[in-house]
Amino acid sequence: xxxxxxxxxxxxxERRVPRVALLIETTRTYAREILGGVRRYxxxxxxxxxxxxLRSLDSAPPPWLCxxxxxxxxxxxxxxxxxxxxxxxxxxxxxxxxxxxxGKRPFIGMDNARIGQAVARHFYDRGFRQFxxxxxxxxxxxxxxxxxxxxxxxxxGCSCSELPETSSEHIADWEGSQRxxxxxxxGLRKPVGIFAANDQLGxxxxxxxxxxxxxxxxxxxxxxxxxxxxxxxFSSPPLxxxxxxxxxxxxxxxxxxxRLMSGESPPFKPSLIAPKGIVIRxxxxxxxxxxxLVASAARLIREEAAIGLNVEQLCRRLNVSRTTLxxxxxxxxxxxxxxxxxxxxFREVERLLRETNxxxxxxxxxxxxxxxxxxxxxxxxxxxxxxxxxxxxxxGLRH
Length: 399
What we know:
Number of strands: 12
Low-confidence stretches: 1-5, 7-13
Strand content: 5-15%
CATH class of the largest domain: Alpha Beta
Number of domains: 3
Order of helices and strands: HEHEEHEEHEHEHHEHEHEHEEHHHHHHH
Largest sheet: 6 strands, mixed
Helix content: 40-55%
Distance between the termini: 54 Å
């Protein structure tokens, strides 16, 4: 006898799986983290039938969107054309790029007020009392970030210099923009902490400092935003940046869209996600040094420790006795010249272990150690494990 399907089972099979378009660029670390958050929600509460393709931020709207038989959209909208087309579908949609482009769509994104405040505190806690910002006038979220940074700086009784770029078209002239940056940087009182509204602008600042012979971070410390890892790690020195919480944005956007597709009314207020924190790299990893002798020593150590600089050579270069340099570096840094040289060397050792496949012999040669067994013994004393074990552990944490 043929069995009769269970009614509840049949209704599940006949129920339509939601069709969702993810109009999100795939070229940025933050956007890929957002997609990961959406995927995490769908894995727990789906299934969804999702449309996703390789996109850049300014990709044209998909030509099929105006006639698409879909159920919902999550979008990072770049143009008014895209915004109007999404509105014309009449479908539930969640905006995750800019509240300026969202129209009537609910917005979920990063809390720009907290971003600016976090960067100001980062600099202030490192002893900076001179500040600057470098931004774009064309984006509302850039303005929110830098204005909250400036507000926090003023609250601490300090002033802030601003060089806003007028538009994306202006910075398209790389050499002209860099000349303007060099002039601005040259006129700032130093040491100064500068907040770049995103990592692309942070990279431009670092390049202008390099062209001008300005020491980073001793004279100018720089923090970007978004933690776009390719840019941050490729720059010289690597760029400190605010790490966004793309996973939470994506998960929250998917959860909200699910409710909207079920008939719930959209919320009246935007949902703002706090950043994860600041990923500190070499562009802002030092404290302000007010002693000019110690500042000069720290710069020489940073530049030459890895090529074998020792304390005797350092004292000769600075024309100072070892006793005087020991005393003043201890007062300013709580470290002797020898300890500072060792710290900088091992920081470079750790970077090479983490970012390259160089042998221990090659790393020793590149970081001022005469023999690799000296490096291995000193590394084990410092970290409690061999360089090889440290590298394997770091690879495991990354993957």
